[in-house]
Amino acid sequence: MSDIGTRTPATPSAPVSVHDLDLPVVPLDARDGTRDETAEIYHSLSAESWIARSQIGFSILHYDDVTAILRDKRWHNAVAKLPELRGITDPAFIDRPPSILAAEGDLHVRLRRLVAKAFSPREADRLRPFMRDVVHDLVDDVAAAGRADVAVDICEPYPIPIICELLGAPREDWQLFSRWAEDVLRIFNGTALDELDVIKQAQLELNDYVREMIARRRSDPREDLITQLIAAEEEGDRLSTEELVSMVNAVIVGGTDTTRNQLGCAVGVFCDHPEQWALLAERPELAPQAVEEVMRYFGAVRGTGRFASEDIVYRDILFPAGTFVFP
Ligand code: HEM
Description:
The chain has helices at residues 35-48, 63-71, 82-85, 91-94, 105-115, 121-126, 128-143, 150-155, 159-167, 174-184, 196-219, 225-231, 241-255, 257-272, 274-282, 287-297; strands spanning 16-17, 51-53, 58-60, 75-77, 306-308, 312-314, 317-319, 324-326.
């Protein structure tokens, strides 16, 4: 393959389009294997090139390019494009106002400002005793047996009670939330197109539930995220009811599978390195570093999506508007 990093464009003023380059290809099953198998595939791709062709765009494989692209505001978050990428044309999925996960520019800055206080480390600390209780209960449930399927028995059920507590949803509604979250998150599955009705129904029910919660908290404020988000104000600006609904959705979409999967990845790493587990048991004050390191070494989210909001020339290569990349 030619060295695309230094490839000479056809004419100095017309950089070659990324679509016309001869690039290595990310195998379709690149992520189906174990951590080491996946790492090996990406390692050998990145030894060959900083960019590879993937199923719906281009994988960006080198640290400096990932950083450059994530910092360049012309690349927009692709999460809102996900339904479209899955072939979904239903306006209920396409025409939604952007949530904080997908917003760009001034809108993103505004949303971040409004929610910054509610998402502070201090607010997370408030929930720590509750988080401990939840995980202790899950471990107690399997402790007598002396064995567990950690992914199923611990990681999977862990986040929902905490998200419910964070939002202020009562305990009796945890099961409901769990089902809605599971169904709404199906949008990330390759089979989303076949499950649209289920996803849509769950989304409608969840949104109605959250709207009702918002109405109740407006007249009866509590110590929960919804109350804080209702009260959040920046220079007279506030979140509208629909923005509040969208924010709650973002918390569910952003906080459920990520947390579950990261917990599973962490336990997996410790299974491979039992001496590190023993060290952590001996010195629990190392937990914050352990979290950082397992996320670095085996992160549940190993990439993200961006699309070119306009024609972008990077490394003398043209990425036409709409091109998807996966840094
Ligand atoms: C270990 C668990 C988690 C992981 C691995 C994770 C990962 C990520 C990543 C990679 C992004 C950036 C996405 C991008 O720019 O393309 C992100 C953004 C975000 N996450 Fe998480 N996340 C986790 C937990 C959570 C939780 C628990 C919540 C909510 C309670 C949450 C809410 C958000 C929000 C709102 C954003 C968007 C921030 C913005 O654009 O301003 N995440 N997360």
